[in-house]
Amino acid sequence: MDLTEMFAERTARMKASEIRELLKLLDQPGIISFAGGIPDPALFPSDAFAKAFAQTMEGDQAGSALQYSVSEGYLPLREWLVGEMAKVGVPCSVDNILITSGSQQALDYLGKLFLSPGDTALVNWPTYMGALGAFNPYEPRYDQLSINGNRSAEDFKDSAKAETGGRVKFAYLSSDFSNPTGETVDRRGRESLLDLVDDLDCAVIEDAAYQALRYDGADIPPILAFEIARKGDIEACRTIYCGSFSKTLSPGLRVGWIVAAKPVISQLVLMKQASDLHSPTLNQIAINAVARACFEDHVSDVRKAYRGRRDAMLAALERYMPKGVEWTRPEGGMFVWLTLPVGVDGADLLALALETQKVAFVPGHAFFADGSGRNTIRLSFSCADEATIEEGMRRLGLALQAAIG
Ligand code: PMP
């Protein structure tokens, strides 16, 4: 008996990434890793969570905290989010908000909501590989998002139809300090994206996972805020905003949220009911308590720590990178993106760097929907202290020198 023969066609595109195989090697002692794109656990507000969980379980709320709850999400948390969204220029009501199990679930639901096989999703080259992983089972075609006006909406529509017979359903992008490049879409870019999607008559999925982690420069309102400013009301907007507490409070509790026009939220609520009924009640209660008690102060501490690490990485790159290597200078987030001289392969470099220098990173290739980008790598500065970053960049410089020859 071979059950794998009976798997649905959609599973053909659910593949383990080659990177995961390479990263298994990271368990060896002495490796300095800039591979994991995860928050530093030392920065989690553990005391505040300990208090929130204890108070909930000791109080009258214990029963309801352990009970099923509504699919839309814990109301006091949605109310707090209404206030936060208003602060960034997104006036909305609790009915515009759905709590999800992390923003990863939001990406899965939005793929399910919009994509029929052969429909087109516009994504950056490179983009968050977890978004590609979430969309892939819905069998889309990908096209390269371009917001500088060098491709017309007609051109995007025509190639969507000609190649797979579908239509462009959405543009997905991480607007601030993207994973993997660390880059941010500026105000003009946000406006021209909105021009493009209006012409295309498609949705925008705005992934705001890193939005709170800005270290310098002025905040830029979300794309959804720009669209509300144009159209007057969230109900007239095509942008769907995906937020997350993963990079600010805790990724393990799996709490994120979607903000969108009500008809979108209503359909997503049905999807949530069918998929997991609701996100864990206790986790939502704890996130609500901690967010209300200390969100701003906590995020300000996290920013301070990561700012120092970002600065250390940029300074060390200047010192140790051989000629011909270029990198981004992110104003926030967790990542720096390196472009290596053409012909230097990121995956080969990882094998060499692990073996000879005991330093790790993620080859950039897997972030490209078209399989390009072999001469790129992603470095994450979130989990290493300044001295380790300095030593790690020194080692990376040596590995690169050996690779370039
Ligand atoms: N979007 C981006 C750009 C990410 O980097 C991540 C996590 N690495 C996610 C979404 C998913 O995060 P979560 O589900 O924990 O909110």
UniProtKB/TrEMBL annotation:
Highest taxon of the lineage: Bacteria
Any single Pfam family the record assigns to this protein: Aminotran_1_2
UniProt cross-references to InterPro entries, sorted A to Z: Aminotransferase_I/II_large (IPR004839), Class-I_PLP-dep_aminotransf (IPR050859), PyrdxlP-dep_Trfase (IPR015424), PyrdxlP-dep_Trfase_major (IPR015421), PyrdxlP-dep_Trfase_small (IPR015422)
Aminotransferase class I/classII large domain mapped to chain residues: 45-396
Major enzyme class: transferase
CDD domains: AAT_like
EC number(s) given by UniProt: 2.6.1.39
GO molecular function annotation: 2-aminoadipate transaminase activity; pyridoxal phosphate binding
Bilayer-crossing regions: none
Keywords, ordered alphabetically: Aminotransferase, Pyridoxal phosphate, Transferase
Protein name (record): 2-aminoadipate transaminase
Organism field: Shimia thalassica
Gene: lysN
